[in-house]
Amino acid sequence: MTKLIIGNWKMNGSQALVASMVESIKSVINQTSSSVQVVVCPPFPYLGVLKQAIGDANIGIGAQNVHTQLSGAFTGEISVGILKDWQTTHCLVGHSERRSLFGETDQLVQEKTKLLLDHEIKPVICVGETLEQRESGQHESTVTQQLKVALKGLSSSELERSVVAYEPVWAIGTGKTASEEQANQMHIVIRKTLEEHATPDLAKSVMILYGGSVNAKNAGSLLQQSDIDGCLVGGASLKPEDFSQIIQAGL
Ligand code: 13P
Description:
Blueprint: E1 3-8, H1 15-30, E2 36-41, H2 47-54, E3 59-63, H3 80-85, E4 90-93, H4 96-102, H5 106-118, E5 122-127, H6 131-135, H7 139-151, H8 156-160, E6 163-166, H9 180-195, H10 200-205, E7 207-211, H11 219-223, E8 230-233, H12 240-249
Parallel strand pairs: 1-2, 1-8, 2-3, 3-4, 4-5, 5-6, 6-7, 7-8
Helix pairs in contact: 1-2, 1-12, 5-7, 7-9
Bound molecules: 1,3-dihydroxyacetonephosphate.
1,3-dihydroxyacetonephosphate is lined by residues 8, 95, 167, 172-173, 211-214, 232-236.
C-alpha cells in the first residue's frame, strides 16, 4: 500500500528552503515507482513558491491551518477558498500546538474537517494524548474521544478522503519517539474507532500517520508496522537530506 509522508514546517523555513527541499524530494520520488505520496506544509506565505517549485511533480501542497469562516473581517486568518486557490491538497487540523496554544477544541476541529472536505481538501486530523493522560491510562480513551468528535456527521466517502495523524504530545519535538509497539497499538485503536463509522474495508483504506520525533533513523521501523500508513514529520522535515531518507524508508 502507498505510504504518506507529510512534512510540517510549523513556523520555520524560507524561500530558499522551499527550493532545495522540492529538488531533494523530486530526486527521490523520480527514482521510484512512487509508492510514497509526499506532502509539504510550509507556512502560508510559501504556498505560492512551493506550488511553483513543484511544477508537475507528484508532491502535495499542505497547509497547517484554516479558518472556519469563508471570508470577511478576520485579520491574520486564511480561508479555505484561499487554500483552494493555491491548489492546496491537504490541511492539518487540530495539531496539538493549535489545541494547547490557540485553544482549538474538538468541536472546532470537527467544523474545520467538514469545511475542508466540502472544498475537496484532505483534512489531516491530528489526535494525541499528553504524558499525564498516558501515565494515568487514559491515552486510548482520550484519542478515541478526540477522533469521534472530529468525525461526527461525516459520510463514508468523506471519511475515505480524510487522513488521521496520531501524535502523542509527549513525543512532539522532544526526541522521545513512541515505541513501534506503542504507536501501532494506538493505530489499531484508531482503526477500530473508524470501523464504528464505516465498513472494515473503508476503515482499512483510511491513512493513519504517526508523528512525534520521527527521524531518518526510526522512520523505517515505524513504517513497517501493520497499521502505520505514513508519518507526519516536524523537525526532520526541515532538513532535505533527513526528509529524503524518511521518504526512502517508505519506498
Ligand atoms: P517533531 O517531528 O519535531 O517531533 O514534530 C512532530 C509534529 O508535531 C509534526 O506535526
